[in-house]
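Posting for a labmate who doesn't have an account.
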Amino acid sequence: MSTTIKYKNLYGEDMTLQQLPNVGDYDKLQYENGNVKRIDSYYDKKLDSGTYYLSSTEDKQAIVLEFSNIWISTEIYLNTQSVGTFTLREWETYGGTDLISKGKTLFDNQDRRVATEFLDINSSQIKSIEKKFYLTIHDEYIDIDGLPDFGQLSFYYKEDLIIVEVNLPGFEDDNYRISDNENVLNNLLIRPLFKWEDHPYYHRALPLIPNTPNI
């Protein structure tokens, strides 16, 4: 088994070991046989939380117990399923050894979060759903503000309500409600980048897994 260590900043950019003293927040990623196995997340240069990718041969409770003394919170990914070009992963988050949240997250072929379903920890009923769209054309927008999520549209669904967060300069501080009479995505600055009517996947919370590869 080959093990590789990589470091990434908040923008997902690779870093060298020599750059770490100049950066407060970063992730240390451990790969086994080319697949990420463990992520240690540092904030203000201190180890804070972590993520662990559980294999079918590992004992979940033993892993949770092991990392409860290392990380403030532990996220465990389990039951990975490939669906076309997407990957669906179930996850659980622990504070110490206590389960505090759980859900399912859909990733695209670039390992970016496309959708997350938050579940009740007791009943497993859906509590809320979030979806993300990654703009590939920014038009006149330049990432001058250094936003970690620059170019993302984040959609939040709860009951009949849709809220979108537009992470572009001039919009990043607000959440906007989408309705028949009100839709910030029809703004003349945003519409050339994202046409609401062309992306029906985001018009409702479900299905979590898209029916087509292009969303």
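Reply:
Got it, the structure tokens are right above this. The first helix runs from residue 60 to 67.
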